[in-house]
Structures are given as C-alpha cells and as structure tokens.
Amino acid sequence: MEKQPNQVLWNLVFAAILLLLGLGIYKSSQAIDYIWRWDRIPQYIVYQARDELRAEFDGTIESNDKGQLILVNDIDDSERAVIVNYQEFVIAEGDLIFEGDLLAVNYQWQSGPIATGLWMTIKLSLVSIVFAILLGSLAGLARISPNPALRHFATLYVELVRGTPLLVQIFIVYFFLGTVLDLERFTAGVVALSVFTGAYVAEIIRAGIESISRGQMEAGRSLGMSRGKTMRYVILPQAFKRVLPPLAGQFINLIKDSSLVSVISLTDLTKAGREVVSVTFSPFEVWFSVAFLYLILTASLSLLVRRLEVRYAVRD
C-alpha cells in the first residue's frame, strides 16, 4: 500500500510558503517607498450620498402644531415650506434663512464607480455566457454533422475566431458591425465575447461528444431511437459531465477577457479601475482591489461548477 504524505507537515510547508510570499510583497512595497492609502478605496465601492435641501426663498423657521419645522416667507407668510423626512436638520426654530441656505440633509447608500463597473462585468459576462453556450452548442453539433455544408461552416467559424485576437474582434464588431447595424456598446461587447467564446465551447462540446463510445449511438439506434433522440437522451447527458471542467475554465477566461471591452468605452470593472486611479493616484490599492473582485467572480463560478460535478457524480 502506498504511503500517504504527512498532512500536517505539508500543510505547514504550504503555510510557510504563503508567509514568505506575503513577506516578499511587503518588503517589495517598502523598497519602492510607496505610501499605501487603502482608506481611499471604500468610498469608490459604496458611499453615502448627501441629499441637501436648500431654501428657495428668504424666511424664518417656525414650527406647527405637529412639531414640524416650517420655512415661512418673510414677504408673503402664505408661502410656506414644511421640512419633513430628513435625517439631519441644520436649522432650528427662530432661525433667519436666506435663499440658498442649507436646511436639512439626507444620506443614502449608493454604489461607487468600482461597484458599478463590477455590476457591468457581471451582467456582460452572464449574458455572453448564455449566448456562447447556445452558439457553441450549435457549432459543436454542426462540427460532427454528416451534412458537409454544416460541418464546413462550423469549421470555418471555429478556425477564423480562434485564429484572431479577441481585441481585434472587438474592434471589428464595434466599429464595423456596430456602425452598420447601429449596435450599442454593451450589445457589441456581448456579440464579440459570445462569438469568441462560442468557438472554444464548440470545440469542447465536439471533443466531449466524440469521447463517448460509438457503441452508445449504435445501441440507441438499435432500440429504434432516431439519431437526434439518441444524441439528446444518450450521448449529450454523458458528454455534459465530461465537458464541465473545460467549460468552467473557458467561462472563467470569458470573465477575465471581458476587461478588453473597456477599449470601446464600456465602463466595466477594469475601466472603472482606471478612472479611480486617475482620481486617487493610488494605482496599487485600486488594481489589487480590482484583481480581488475578479478573483471573487471566477472563484464563485469555479465553486458552482464543482458543485455540479459532485451532484452529477453522485447520480452516477
């Protein structure tokens, strides 16, 4: 029986390596004489917006029988403004108010540019993943179709897309197709990412289907099932389990590749990071935060796919 490694020892080795890496990063930051300003970052993720109420005319602050503060016009006392539903009052009864003076303030939480960019990245990635699955599935099935026209078109699509950079494809979609079809930036970004990822999904699905023994198709046909039904009920369920890991890797790449849409002025997480850097002059803090948010997205997708793998493995 093969001897198992000492779990405690190797976990300690792992922790020691992480500690050394952290120490190396800390020493590197000290060597470049950089002043860290992490306190600047939270306000660009979420912040309390200030909603101010200012006087529209000159007057005096009075109170009514309900205890509410009222601004009464000094010239026409029939003109009154009741000041209610505010969290903070900066005036009191008897104060003399001039037009434009601050009366009360409300605070409400709002998303900053980094959070807004994160939401754009999530939305862009999710929509692109859906269309990439549809396009890739069709192209993958066409790649193994007995129809030569479908097979050749699918092969041409896969080779053209995989043989050109995504950045170039984004430019072509936005500046050429976008001009011809009047596409918005978001739509152009979805089209470019979906077409690019769909080509890789097609190859993953083709490989998954071809990894299933041909005897499965023959068995289905011998039972009186059509080729389409055999593919749907016998081949594809088995292939789906096998292609989950490579599909997860491809979708993780899609999330990271979505950062390229910033070149067409779509404010995703990367572009939001650049804008915050230009304001805060804190590039290290901003880019570490952006990288961490990307890591959360990709790790969440990896965890979801892992749960799917375990679920279908149990069913086996």
Describe what this molecule looks like in 3D.
This protein is an alpha+beta fold. It has 3 domains: 1-34, no CATH class; 48-111, OB fold (Dihydrolipoamide Acetyltransferase, E2P) (Beta Barrel); 113-315, MetI-like fold (Orthogonal Bundle). The protein is built from 9 helices and 7 strands, in the order αβββββββαααααααα. The protein starts with 6 loop residues before the first helix and ends with a helix. The mean pLDDT is 86.
Radius of gyration computed on alpha carbons? 30 Å
| Low confidence ranges | none
Average predicted confidence as pLDDT: 86
CATH topology of the largest domain: MetI-like fold
Percentage of residues in DSSP E strands = 5-15%
User: Care to count the β-strands?
Assistant: 7
Q: Which architecture of the largest domain does the CATH hierarchy give at level 2?
A: Orthogonal Bundle
How many discrete domains? 3
- Can you tell me the CATH class of the largest domain? Mainly Alpha
Say what oligomer this is.
single chain
Give me the number of helical elements. Answer: 9
Please bin the fraction of helical residues: 55-70%
Q: Write the CATH homologous superfamily of the largest domain.
A: MetI-like
Compute the separation of the termini in Å: 28 Å
